[in-house]
Amino acid sequence: MLTYPHINPIAISIGPVFGLGPLRVHWYGLMYLIGFVVAWWLARYRAKQPGSTWTALDIDDLIFYSAIGVIIGGRVGWCIFYGHDVIAENWLNVFHIWDGGMSFHGGMAGVLVAGAIFAKVKHKLIPDVFDFLAPLPGIGLLFGRLGNFINGELWGKPTTVPWGFNFNGVVRHPSQLYEACLEGILLFTVVWLFSSRPRPRLAISGLFLIVYGTSRFFLEFWRLPDEHIGYLWDGWLTMGQVLSFPMIIIGIIFMLYAYRARTPSGNFAVAQ
């Protein structure tokens, strides 16, 4: 059994500033910032590869669009799917992102909208933009789940395994760390390696949907559902599983289509 370290969620506190109280920087926000910076660096690296049709300016704009999409979509998605009681308590809580409460599925929807707008502005095909983006979310998920762990939220079920964490007197599965490993490290590694050479259009997006959807669906068996929502059916089906299962199906459809059509990706100028 391990003891949860109870890390202060506030990384930096300065002030008071201009008489308005202290300026506080939360670890959760820093994790998102680190995720965006690493994703930007990786995208820049990928854009420099021989035959790439992406420029450094494209990457800067893409990460900006995506960051806006993640933040707005993630928070709105959380409010819709999970945060009803928090918002009912005080509608201003919708802006308290530093307290946690970001939905991956909402964030993904936000990125899809942002990516589509980016594609329109940059005269790129939407599937090509999605394929280029697909390897990057795993990094953000890794740091985001570490932020959940620091905040002491999204715990798993009680357990007797030796790597369980004693949190407020109950030993629990560290489901945030499980997700950091599968939705973060595994997802990034698999999709990054797969996308390291030209693939048919939508194949990379399809693989991303399959790996994330499967990982999340599987991990929900160890993660506790939100208390105010609970299980949706027969004591095991969670909201996360309901939202993830369609991703798996769509991912399989994308992969089948990609390898039947074998349409060359527009992300490479070289012959494929």
Name the descriptors.
single chain; 272 residues; 3-stranded mixed sheet; mainly alpha; globular; 57% helix; two-stranded antiparallel ribbon
Would you mind describing this structure in some detail?
- The chain is mainly α and 272 residues long.
- The protein has a domain at 2-184.
- 57% of the residues lie in helices and 6% in strands.
- The strands form two sheets. The chain has a three-stranded mixed sheet with strand order 1-4-5, with no helix packed on it. It has a two-stranded antiparallel sheet with strand order 2-3.
- Helix 7 (175-194) packs antiparallel against helix 8.
Helix content: 55-70%
> Any idea what the radius of gyration is?
20 Å
Q: How many strands, what sense, and barrel or not for the largest sheet?
A: 3 strands, mixed
Give me the side-by-side strand order of the main sheet: 1-4-5
Into which percentage range does the β-strand content fall?
A: 5-15%
Shape: globular
Number of strands: 5
What is the first-to-last residue Cα distance? 52 Å
Element order: H for helix, E for strand: EEEHHHHHHEEHHH
Instruction: Give the averaged pLDDT, no decimals.
Output: 90
Number of helices: 9
SS class: mainly alpha
Low-confidence stretches: none
How are the SSEs placed, and which strands pair?
Elements: E1 2-3, E2 10-14, E3 23-26, H1 27-47, H2 56-81, H3 84-89, H4 104-122, H5 126-133, H6 137-151, E4 165-167, E5 170-172, H7 175-194, H8 203-219, H9 239-261
Parallel strand pairs: 1-4
Antiparallel strand pairs: 2-3, 4-5
Helix pairs in contact: 1-2, 1-6, 2-4, 4-5, 6-7, 7-8, 8-9
